[in-house]
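FAQ: What does a multi-protein file look like?

Like this. Sequence, then tokens, then the next protein.
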Amino acid sequence: MDRVKLEAARRSKPFGWSDLIVFAAAIALTVLVVWGAYRRKGASVEIVAPGFSAVYPLDADRTVELETLTVVIEGGSVYVTAPACPDKVCEHTGRIRHENQSIVCLPNRVTVTIRADGAINGSTGQK
């Protein structure tokens, strides 16, 4: 490079205001899409455990007692109580209410997942 081009390159800015505006808009759009995809309210809860599988509506309060823990459906949300495992991660997960949220108890092999009725699960292609 000749000296003039080298000096011009040193003085130039890699990003201008228009670049920053486009970058900020792209970040905002990404956040909105991800937030919208994971914030839909669920319609049902699927409980899967060894020897047990059931789907219940979220709008009806009920308590499902399994051998190793208790699943409580209450006020459109789901939570786990009284797990028979040492770490109690499933209990500390708290309440879930949005589509595709899950509570998992690995020692007891129990999963509690919020589903939308009739929606296809994008990760497996199944309902």
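And here is the next protein:
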Amino acid sequence: MFPEELVRKIGAYLVYLIYTGRKDVSGNDWGDAFADAIGGMHLDSPVGIADVVFGKNCWSVKTVKAKDPFTSTGIRLISGRCSPDYSYGITDPHKDVQKTGEAVLSIWNERINIATDHYSRVRTAVMVRSYDLLSYRLFEEETTRYRTTDYHWTVNSNGNLTGLDRDGNVRFTWQPHGSQFTIHTEVPDGSVRFTVRKPPTLQKDDVLKSIGFDGSWITILD
């Protein structure tokens, strides 16, 4: 799903970030890189599904860190805050965890409904990055609704709610404190793997010299 030319553009943006001294790549950075590569617009909005748009297509962009992106088989995608208290009046999420879990998925589904009202394709673009920012893995998938009754919800040892599919696999985690919703996602075998060469770091003195900086640029006020 990622043509070679697109991967090279994404890689070039990442090299640029490293060169300018970036110690890590945030979700906003990944949104900027993806939008730049496809010629789209990064909305940079904390609300909703659509992060990057191009025509009638939109993407939710997610990045996660892994010790070795090339061998990672499963990742967790933080997918926003879903508050059943605000949306459904559920003040005690542990009183009926099944009801709470179904409410959380309903909130997620409604966000997708809103996105599909405005865009013909709603997808998720994922970048798994290494700790040294030199190895990456890319894949894209449909951003899907979930049938709320297909999952069984329990409480784990941390007091968080976990949604299990019919085979007993954990598919979701929801944290009552903060209402953070996480989707457990498998990394497809066909995802794109690539590395970048570490560039030299841009030095402060070189930057100041290149812009002709001198002491007159600083004005000390009484």
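Q: Is there any per-entry metadata?
A: Some entries carry free-text notes. For the entry above: The CA atoms of residues 145 and 183 lie 12 Å apart.
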